[in-house]
Design the sequence.
């Protein structure tokens, strides 16, 4: 029998190393700040000294000096590590006061998070680009077609994106980046998918664009033959939206409750929720065209079965389809008596995420990404209280169904009779003319023969229009069995909620036409620093590995 290996011991007076070697099943706790040390060790340098040292080490002058000494070696190392060399760019005279590096070759943007302008820049970058990595000092973002699509969908103008990047960039904005932004966004927002009278219509204010789409083999084949052809009508006027649970909503309630008071709202009430939103200064005239009395809308009807094919083909042709719901002007569907309880107030980042959904007075379909424990359920409840129409909520399990119902009863004034559950054990309907149904993806997408009660419940779901569909854990939707759920029900708008917008396959991009663009993504490190969610501690556990298992894992 082999002798057991004894663990090495150290004397009490011996100072532990910064990171000792771990034995089997020996956890090591690592703080969320990415700086860790063994218990009892002291930091040799302050955080300010570390920051200054890092800035000096990776400055352009230092990189040029290193590259001058060892040009070939550093170039090969940078290519192997995927490091972007931006030393060839000319810096602006006041580059130290600007927080952005823009790499035209990779369409990457690097943010110096220690800059005084980092907060405003980060809010903007999360809307126009995809976050790749956001450690303590340097954040990296990627410009992509879908990220720019999401930026335009929330009301940003392409020229405003270019101006803002050029304003905060340390170097003159490369022409390749300007061309990429203009090329990707020139057709965004021109085509919309609208649900009217339980029928789907493809609409656009430009008749030439609609004629071009109808000539496409895929889209033209999906057109309803016995429809009235191209329908031209006056564009509806858009109104403002007050999101429940915000300071604006509290001000509205206060003014409404005060009898005989004609005093206008104070500037604090109007601007408190928007003081940190940098987009308000970039799109003052964004909705001028939408408010034009002479504006007309041209539309054609497409069948329900062809919605996904039309959306995918439009995206391929460079005309991504927006889904918007003008719920304020919807007179066909009854209103739902629901609102947040008076003592319910949503957090700043929750309000910011919802403002991307309701910024133009309509409900935009899209995805909101918030970390675990950040209140995704309350965001969905607040969206339902804003639209005040029939709501369908789809979850991954029956337990989540019960939790969603309990959260609605906890945070809103919804009557228990107006929110029902549709699972294998419960097949309920709400008592009024409209209400809320909470179910699972598997119950809606089941292809096998159903029981009498289940089929009757499905007929109830598919036979009416719904104002909003909330998809919990939306990253599971691209699965083949779940894809048809997005169009099996007649919903005017869709809201996807998730903490992990990732999949092992490459189907996560399908959400751009199944649901909509990513409207908002919060930084979990910031929320942890602000005390909204728990601080993360990483633990490294070393485990023994058999030879057979090691050989398999190496392959």
Sequence:
């Amino acid at each position: 029998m082999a002798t057991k290996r004894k663990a090495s011991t150290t004397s009490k007076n011996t100072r532990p190393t910064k990171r000792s070697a771990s034995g089997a099943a020996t956890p090591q706790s690592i703080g969320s700040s990415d700086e860790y040390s063994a218990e009892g060790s002291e930091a040799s340098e302050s955080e300010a000294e570390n920051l200054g040292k890092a800035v000096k080490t990776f400055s352009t002058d230092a990189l040029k000096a290193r590259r001058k000494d060892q040009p070939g070696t550093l170039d090969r190392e940078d290519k192997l590590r995927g490091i972007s060399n931006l030393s060839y760019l000319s810096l602006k005279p006041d580059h130290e006061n600007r927080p952005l590096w823009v790499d035209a070759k990779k369409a990457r943007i690097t943010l110096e998070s220690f800059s005084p302008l980092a907060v405003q820049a980060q809010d903007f970058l999360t809307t126009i680009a995809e976050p790749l990595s956001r450690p303590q000092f340097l954040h990296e973002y990627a410009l992509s077609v879908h990220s720019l699509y999401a930026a335009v969908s929330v009301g940003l103008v392409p020229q405003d994106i270019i101006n803002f990047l050029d304003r905060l960039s340390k170097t003159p904005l490369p022409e390749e980046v300007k061309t990429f932004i203009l090329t990707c966004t020139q057709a965004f927002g021109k085509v919309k998918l609208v649900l009217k009278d339980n029928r789907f219509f493809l609409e656009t204010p430009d008749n030439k664009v609609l004629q071009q789409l109808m000539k496409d083999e895929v889209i033209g084949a999906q057109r309803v033959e016995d429809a009235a052809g191209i329908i031209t009508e006056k564009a509806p006027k858009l109104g403002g939206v007050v999101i429940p649970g915000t300071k604006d909503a509290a001000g509205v309630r206060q003014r409404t409750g005060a009898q005989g008071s004609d005093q206008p709202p104070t500037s604090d009430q109007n601007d408190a929720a928007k003081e940190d939103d940098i987009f308000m200064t970039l799109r003052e005239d964004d909705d001028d065209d939408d408010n034009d009395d002479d504006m007309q809308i041209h539309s054609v009807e497409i069948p329900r079965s062809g919605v996904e094919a039309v959306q995918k083909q439009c995206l391929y042709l460079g005309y991504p389809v927006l889904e918007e719901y003008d719920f304020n002007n919807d007179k066909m569907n009854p209103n739902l008596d629901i609102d947040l309880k008076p003592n319910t107030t949503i957090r700043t980042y929750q309000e910011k995420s919802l403002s991307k959904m309701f910024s133009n007075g309509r409900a935009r379909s899209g995805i909101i990404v918030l970390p675990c424990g950040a209140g995704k359920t309350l965001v969905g409840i607040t969206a339902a209280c804003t639209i005040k129409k029939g709501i369908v909520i789809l979850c991954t399990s029956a337990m989540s169904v019960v939790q969603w119902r309990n959260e609605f009863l906890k945070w809103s004034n919804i009557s228990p009779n107006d929110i029902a559950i549709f699972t294998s054990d419960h097949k309920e309907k709400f008592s009024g003319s409209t209400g809320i149904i909470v179910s699972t993806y598997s119950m809606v997408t089941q292809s096998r023969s159903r029981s009498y009660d289940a089929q009757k419940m499905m007929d109830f779901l598919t036979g009416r229009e719904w104002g909003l569909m909330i998809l919990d854990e939306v990253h599971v939707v691209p699965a083949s069995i779940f894809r048809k759920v997005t169009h099996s029900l007649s919903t005017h708008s869709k809201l996807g909620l998730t903490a992990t917008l990732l999949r092992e396959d490459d189907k996560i991009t399908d959400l751009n036409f199944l649901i909509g663009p990513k409207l908002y993504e919060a930084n979990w490190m910031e929320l942890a620093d602000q005390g909204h969610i728990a601080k993360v501690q990483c633990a490294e556990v070393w485990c023994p590995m058999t030879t057979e298992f090691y050989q398999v894992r190496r392959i």
